[in-house]
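User: For a reading group we're discussing how well predicted structures match intuition. Take SpoVT-AbrB domain-containing protein. Before you show the prediction, I'll give you the sequence so everyone sees exactly what went in.
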Amino acid sequence: MAHLITIGNSKGVRIPKNLIEQAQIQDKELEFSVLPEGILISPVKKVREGWAEKFSLLAHQPTTNEDKEWLESDIGESQTESDWTW
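Assistant: Thanks. Here is the predicted 3D structure of SpoVT-AbrB domain-containing protein, as C-alpha cells, for the group to look at:
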C-alpha cells in the first residue's frame, strides 16, 4: 500500500520500480489526469514523436507495382480542375 510522502512543500508517491518498468514510463515526461476514481498517470504523447524514424523506414522499403503506377501516372499534368467530374 502506498502513502503520500512530503517532498519539500509538495506531496508525492513512491512508485515501485517494477510498476514503472511495466508501464514503460521510465525517463518519460508524465501527465496527471483527475478521474472520479482517482489520479491517472500517463506518459505525455508528443504528436510527432518517432515520425522521422518511421518515414525513414518507409523510404527504404521496396516500391510495389501499385506504388510505381501512381508515381509514374500523369495525374494533374494534362488535366485541369475543369476536366474533373464531381
